[in-house]
Amino acid sequence: MIARLRERLPAWIFLFVLLAVWEVVVARGWIADYLLPAPSDIWVTAVELRDDLQAATLATLASILWGLGASFAVGVSLAIGFFLIPVLRRAILPFCVFFQTVPIVAIAPLLVIWFGFGDTTVRASAFIVSLFPILANTLTGLEETDPLLREMFGLYKPSRWKTITRLQIPSAIPYILAGLRISVGLATIGAIVGEFIAGGGLGSLIDSARTQQRVDLVFCGVLASSILALVLVLSIDLLSRILMRGRPYTRSAR
Hints:
With 254 residues, this protein is mostly helical. The radius of gyration is 22 Å and the shape is globular. Helix 3 (50-84) runs antiparallel to helix 4, helix 5 (104-115) crosses helix 9 and helix 9 runs antiparallel to helix 11 (215-244). It has eleven helices and no strands. Helices cover 83% and strands 0% of the residues. It folds into two domains: 1-31; 41-244, MetI-like (MetI-like fold), CATH 1.10.3720.10.
C-alpha cells in the first residue's frame, strides 16, 4: 500500500499544482472565465446541476453497457466462427477491418436515418466502435493456445467443439479481457458521439451547453464522461484480477 501511494504521489501533486495554477490564472483575469472557467466555478456548477448530470451520466452508462454487452456477445461468437471456419474468416474479416477504419462521426448520421433519434442509435454507435477489439483479441487468443496444452489435451481425443470450449476459450480469457478493456473506452466514445447526433445522455448535455455558451457545464459533462470511462476501465481491471487469480500459467495478451 505504501509503495502504491509513493508511486502515485507525483501524479496527485501535479494535479493539485495544475488546479491551483489554473485557479490563479483565471482569478487574475489572465484568461477570460467565459473561455476557461476556474475549477471552483466548475465545481459549483456540478453541485448545482448534480441531478441533471447524474441523470445524463446514467443514461450514457446504460447505452455503453448495452453496446459493450452486444459487442462482447457478437465479437466472441464471430471469433469462434472465424476460428472454426477459416473460409468464413477470409470472406468476412477484411470487411470488419475496413468497417473499423470508418470514423463513427461519419456513420452516426446514417444511424439516425436508419434507427431514428433516441437510445437505439446511441447503442448502435457504442456497439459498432467496440466490436472489433473484442473480435480481434478473441481470435488471437484462440489461435495462440499453448501447443503443449493442445498436445496434452489431444491425448484424450476430444471433439473439436470440446477442445474449443474447454481448452482454447479458457486460454483466450486474458486476450478477451484485454480486448474488453480497449472496447470500454471506445464504447464510451461511441455513445457520446451517438448522443451528439441522436440526443440524450452526456453527449446531449454537452451539446446543449455548447449552444448556450455554458463552458462551465461543458467541462462538467466532459469530466463526467471521463470519470465514467475511468470507472468502467477500473471495473474491467478488477474483473481481470478476479478471473486470473490462481491461474498457474497465463500467456501475455496483446
